[in-house]
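Case study 2.
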Amino acid sequence: MMGYLTGRTKAIKGVFCAFLLMILPALSIGMVLQEGEGQVVDAARRTDKLLESILRSAPAGIGMVEHRFITEVNDYILDLTGYSREELIGQNARMLYPSEEDYDFVGREKYRQIRKKGTGSVETRWLRKDGEIRHVILSSTPLDLEDLGAGVTFTVLDITDRKMAETRLRKSEERFRMRFEGASAIMMLIDPETGRVVDVNPAALAFYGWPRKTLTAMRIQDINTLSSEEVKVEMQKAFASARNYFEFRHRRADGSIRDVAVFSSAVDVGSKKLLFSIIHDISERKAMEASLLSRTRWFLFGLSLFIVVLLSLTAGLVVSLRRQRQVRQALEENEASLKRQNAVLNALLINLSSGVFMVEAPGGKPIIANPMAEKLLGVGVLPEASRDNLSEVYKARKAGSGGPYPVEEMPIIRAMKGESASIDDMIVERPDGSEVWLEIFGVPIRNEGGEVWAGLVHFQDITARKKAEVEREKLQNQLFQAQKMESVGVLAGGVAHDFNNLIQVMRGNLELLSMETSLDVRSIKRLHVVTGAMDRAAKLVQQLLLFSRKVESGRMRVNLNQAIREVSRLLERTIPKMIAMELHLASDLGAVWADPVQMEQTLLNLANNAADAMPEGGRLIFETENVLLGEDFVRTHPELGAGFHVLLTVSDTGSGMDAATLKQAFDPFFTTKEVGKGTGLGLASVYGIVKAHGGHVLCYSEPGHGSTFRIYLPVLDQEVVQEKKQPDGDCSEKGYETILFVEDERHLRDLGQEAMEAFGYTVLTAGSGEEALDLYAEKGPEIDLVLLDLNMPGMGGQRCLLALLEKNPRVKVLVSSGYSANGQAAEVLASGAKGFIGKPWQLKDLKQKIRQVLG
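Prediction:
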């Protein structure tokens, strides 16, 4: 490179001097040929102007010094130094040098060369007027070799940019060579046209066993057990980016054959495209997979396939990191090789779909972090991996735990301590409030002496996979519950049928016995008592048959509003006067195909249960409305079908139920009442009647907060309801506001955040009322709406609402609860909430309600 620039400088000087040698004689001849003294003067003036023009427009600095005092400079030198011509002419050239040493060196070296060969050229530094130092090449030629005091002409070229580029290139190549040669993974550069191995790192030499000279003289076809044509086809796939992951079998120098996983992609190296391949030994993993497959063939094939695919994507890296070997000392490479390998490594880190970063040990200073690592963690600049603050910096917690993730269990910390580790239970909360579930692999990086000098981690986002597992478990539990209730129903139906026959036989014989005239009064009275007991037993059998859905029913077109009004008139005479009854009935309610007697039985059973839960009085609320169930709601409630349904809601303000009681609420013969005050078949018969009508019943309750039963029944005339159902507003527009979503259930919080972000909103999340208040205190002016769960641990939703209103009386709060808006939630609405949405909500209803509250 230096030879090239020196040659270029000499060429510029030669061209310029040749130009002057050609011009000056011609100008002199022209001057001689002029006739008369005036003509000679005019010619001399034209010559001066021509020389001045050439001097000013020359592509290099040109000037003259006498005894190292500046006598002439062109515009190039003025631009280069920042001085004006008046500031330079007549001044000692010392002012252009940053130090006396530079000035003396140029004088010695330049005049030494002039005395030796008639001209001198030297690379030095000039000092600009503004203090900046520029690197230059200075070439000088004396006007008279015999008299150097007569003056010296010089040319100057600014080479500062070239010097800086050379410095940056050298440092970049040094960094690349250290990373490439120091990597524990097997790396190769391959010519995709011929398959020739262009370059390898020390890990490849250690794995294959051939010396570098031998390995780089081979083709990949000599290593791969596939045929040459098959290898060529696979290389073309990688080169065209049609595929970048492969599994092959490779030969080694000792004759052994190993299973390998290959990640390969095309990279630009200079003017040529090569394949960059990272290779992992997966022989042990292959053996384990074969063994596992033979032992678990009877298990669910779909689940096994999913696990094998997942393991095939991650096991290669895990095995490779755990089996890394001592890194050999890096060999020096030429400048072109360093540049090529640096480009390859940078391209790999930038395009890798997983997060990777490396930190020094033991201090924790970051060395490498690819863009995907910063994207997954949501932190712009990775801080030092201190054992004291790592969990707090990333707000990392262990799945199923509310506290910070134990720092000593983190793979990066264990890697810095010399241990390999992997986890899949870390949840990181990013600065924007979103959470990501990470699977992390960590390994130590050792020097030749075996000492750990760095820790390397590789991690990927498995949030979607974990959410799918939770959703699958939830659906499976629903299926188990439905199957349990179905089995109990079948058993109850069979028992009830046989028991009904026995009662019929006993009651018939009792009636025949009562007709005997020889019985005394006391015996007849006892017969009536037994007959009454038989009647009560028959009613119990009838309820069992209702639960098992084996009772013949007379179905007809029924309006539930009418049934509720009739039942309410009966209840007004039977339930305690301390209980206030409220009806909130939709005027355009759709009809259902149902047995009116069984519908009334359902309403009476729910009302009686509610009355028993309110011995000191309270409120009993009946509500009806038309609802359209979408695919998102049906997906989580597979018992229902999409389309219009009538929603019947029965709420009370009684004592409520805990989780254990709620789980068994619909089981036959389960009761919390005293002996003799309940049969345990009331809610079981409600469940059976609703199921027999193609509907579904949900219950929401908490101790001390009453209970709410929601019954969904399919509408008889879908088209009629479709015509009556008027849209509540245009919800097609995208939102842009910021919403604070407060919900203690993490999976529901994640679902709501994902849905509202899809609607266009910016979503902040909080898991408790206390956390919501802290977040509102920090970002209150940015928050346009608070979506607040009513029932949460800690301070709860109502106290959180009052605290928010105290901070900002104009805050918009949308309350979400499993209770009815006219029941327990009514008090919260009266306190200042702007709206209410009942659980479980559908996404379309949530979107519509948010827009209504935001206006």
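The first strand starts at residue 61 and ends at 66.
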